[in-house]
Design goal:
Helices cover 45% and strands 16% of the residues. It has helices spanning 11-23, 28-37, 44-62, 110-122, 140-149, 167-180, 189-206, 220-227, and strands spanning 72-82, 85-94, 99-105, 131-134, 158-161.
């Protein structure tokens, strides 16, 4: 199916606008001005619709190209404001700083933690964890113990509840917050989730976590063209 069917703008313009929004601290109106300098007239609401559609699509399409993670996870949550209330963005990186997975949740409890770990474990590029480092959130140990009891992770998987060992994932939050903070919150959980999927996907690309065989690319732009079947 042609993802760009019925679009009134050239596909490279759409992907460029989406890429700018997800990669840099720019508003929709900032991108309107940048495109106007290139002779393209587009409304900020149109760009918003592009981001909501192609952000999650980008996250979906890069999954099969992700390089394997290590078996050491660093897990933490950061805060994201939705409709004036704080929600929780669960995130994990491996021992080399590569993104393991992420998940937005309205709650911060055992059920949410368990759901996040299940999401991470379901991704084929993630190794089964040998060790999982978490902070002092009391929800993590029981969530992981339940997963052990249900044989979804090995009994020998070690759980380290030590805050200073999690500096790597806390530092990794900074890129996401750099993009989301200027947005001053999201209007709905659904729009927050769709935009965060795109922002996280762009962060993964920026960190060089993808590999592509038989079609070498030299830049994120070229790789995104390949993902959306725009390569020459």
């Amino acid at each position: 199916m042609n993802t760009f069917k019925w679009k009134h703008f050239e596909t490279h313009i759409i992907l460029m606008a989406v890429r700018w929004y997800l990669r840099y601290s720019l508003s929709y109106r900032d991108i309107v001005e940048l495109l106007k300098e290139r002779g393209v007239q587009v409304s900020h609401t149109t760009i918003m619709r592009w981001v909501h559609q192609f952000g999650p699509e980008l996250d979906k399409r890069i999954r099969r190209y992700l390089k394997p993670t290590t078996d050491s996870y660093r897990v933490d949550e950061t805060y994201i404001k939705v409709k004036g209330k704080w929600t929780y963005l669960y995130r994990a990186v491996d021992s080399k700083g590569k993104t393991v997975d992420f998940m937005l949740s309205s709650s911060r409890d055992v059920k949410a933690a368990k759901r996040f770990f299940r999401k991470a474990l379901s991704s084929p590029h993630n190794q089964t964890p040998r060790v999982i480092t978490v902070d002092k959130n009391p929800a993590y140990p029981p969530a992981l113990q339940q997963l052990k009891d249900e044989t979804e992770i090995p009994q020998e998987t070690s759980i380290r509840q030590t805050k200073y060992l999690n500096n790597m994932v806390e530092q990794d939050h900074r890129f996401i917050k750099k993009i989301t903070n200027p947005m001053l919150g999201f209007k709905s959980f659904q729009t927050a989730e769709s935009r965060l999927k795109g922002i996280e996907a762009m962060h993964i690309l920026r960190k060089g976590q993808v590999e592509i065989q038989h079609s070498p690319v030299s830049s994120i732009v070229a790789f995104m063209d390949h993902l959306f079947d725009l390569s020459a």
